[in-house]
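step=encode ok
step=design start
structure_in=
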């Protein structure tokens, strides 16, 4: 393409077009194309042999493993895979007001108190606001280098002058601008250019850089997907604003596993770590009411017990409502269909509501059995057997399939005082203090509820 040609870039997915069009073909977003001036993508005369030789290295070359810098927050370290790797970049995204700035201020504060040089640059808040928050968090004595700036050039110049920090926080990448680009801050070109420069700086100075990213209304990181490709680690900070719990989840990690979560609680003195999350997501387990079951789930290497609530009620409408909070709605539709077709339990004419208590989002298919139990329990108005946990995946023919990490799930349930476990047949169990009820087919769960006598409800 000619130098300084115009192109149209989708602000949602980063796809480029030669001509303007109303809708992006790649992500189907309307009105997201913005005209941008592009620099030449590939230098001219590549085949003239003027480049320098690059050196190739064998895979078994002895390279000293970088020692990681601990964040002083065990939950964050767990998600990162054991602390910050020097020279890497981390993108942390989340809804506005979820606590990203609070979390990062706590991290830089704690690390600075441990003697590591840390820099926090905010493009959104004035330094006064941040110092007030630091005082509230009890971190006002931490030797953090704090600044409020938006210009990438100023930031890079200042950082290249002094000794580099070990951790650099940029809050947020959408507020920075590179003055050599004509587009506005927050556009694809700006976000990409600023991130690229900061990542380069991080590699050069062996500092870890954390970029805060805004999310759009449908939960994507605003700006191009390429931002996710550019950084080493992508973390999502999520939670329900109505609840105190906040979950930090890794969706990409070049230096650790991506299935770990960190659990925090938002208090009036900042985010507190929650070392044993199961007790938080469980309601009052002594209460025997119909329509609730306890799912023994796994989040990464950590077992997590959560309460699943179902409600089935008669509907006067032709198309009854189906509402899900904290679980996949198409998965719910599948379970309703299996209950109908394989177990003869019809939900036609009923509204179905499903809720994962505590504001958690469950992604495991292993939750199927607990969901089905909550729904059947609600229909029959018979509580799930007392002090029981459930897990297992449901197949389309109604069969219940074994899932992984049975031992860890059962151990956590026993630790929290549960007595019965309803699990798939064929699960590999060594020995467990729980009474194990093995099931093959969803029909067995249905008969479990229809055979036992109704227990008097405690309200
Ligand atoms: P913030 O970190 O500003 O969110 P983000 O940067 O993700 O937009 O979090 C602000 C919210 O956190 C705000 O609603 C107030 C609440 N909060 C507390 O409850 N306790 C605290 O100690 C602090 C600092 C904030
Ligand atoms: Mg913020």
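sequence_out=
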């Amino acid at each position: 393409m000619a130098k300084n040609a115009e192109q149209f870039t989708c602000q949602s997915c980063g796809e480029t077009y030669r001509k303007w069009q109303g809708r992006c073909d790649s992500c189907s977003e309307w009105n997201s194309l913005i005209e941008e001036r592009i620099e030449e993508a590939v230098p001219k005369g590549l085949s003239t042999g003027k480049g320098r030789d690059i050196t190739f290295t064998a895979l078994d070359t002895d390279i000293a493993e970088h020692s990681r810098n601990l964040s002083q927050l065990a939950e964050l370290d767990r998600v990162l895979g054991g602390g910050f790797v020097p020279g890497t970049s981390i993108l942390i995204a989340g809804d506005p007001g979820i606590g990203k700035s609070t979390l990062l201020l706590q991290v830089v504060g704690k690390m600075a108190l441990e003697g590591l040089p840390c820099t926090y640059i905010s493009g959104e808040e004035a330094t006064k606001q941040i110092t007030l928050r630091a005082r509230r968090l009890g971190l006002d004595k931490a030797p953090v280098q704090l600044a409020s700036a938006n210009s990438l050039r100023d930031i890079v110049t200042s950082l290249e002058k002094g000794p580099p920090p070990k951790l650099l926080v940029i809050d947020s990448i959408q507020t920075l601008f590179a003055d050599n680009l004509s587009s506005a801050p927050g556009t694809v070109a700006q976000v990409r250019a600023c991130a690229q420069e900061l990542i380069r700086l991080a590699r050069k100075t062996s500092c870890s850089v954390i970029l805060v990213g805004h999310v759009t209304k449908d939960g994507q990181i605003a700006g191009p997907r390429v931002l996710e490709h550019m950084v080493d680690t992508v973390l999502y900070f999520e939670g329900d604003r109505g609840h105190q719990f906040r979950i930090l989840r890794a969706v990409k990690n070049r230096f650790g596993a991506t299935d770990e979560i960190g659990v925090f609680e938002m208090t009036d003195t900042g985010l507190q770590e929650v070392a044993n999350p199961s007790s938080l997501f469980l309601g009052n387990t002594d209460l025997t009411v119909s329509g609730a079951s306890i799912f023994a789930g796994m989040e990464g290497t950590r077992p997590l017990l959560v309460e699943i609530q179902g409600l089935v009620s008669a509907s006067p409408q032709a198309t009854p409502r189906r509402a899900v909070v904290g679980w996949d709605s198409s998965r719910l539709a599948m379970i309703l269909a299996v209950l109908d077709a394989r177990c003869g339990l019809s939900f036609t004419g009923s509204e179905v509501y499903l809720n994962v208590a505590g504001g958690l989002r469950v992604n495991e298919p292993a939750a199927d059995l607990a969901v089905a139990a909550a729904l059947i329990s609600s229909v029959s108005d018979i509580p799930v057997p007392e002090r029981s946990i459930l897990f297992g995946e449901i197949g389309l023919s109604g069969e219940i399939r074994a899932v992984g990490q049975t031992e860890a799930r059962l151990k956590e349930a026993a630790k929290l005082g549960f007595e019965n476990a309803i699990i798939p047949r064929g699960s590999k169990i060594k020995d467990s203090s729980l009474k194990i009820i093995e099931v093959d087919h969803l029909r067995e769960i249905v008969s479990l509820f229809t055979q036992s006598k109704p227990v008097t409800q405690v309200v």
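step=design ok
step=annotate ok -> Confidence is low (pLDDT under 50) at residues 453-459.
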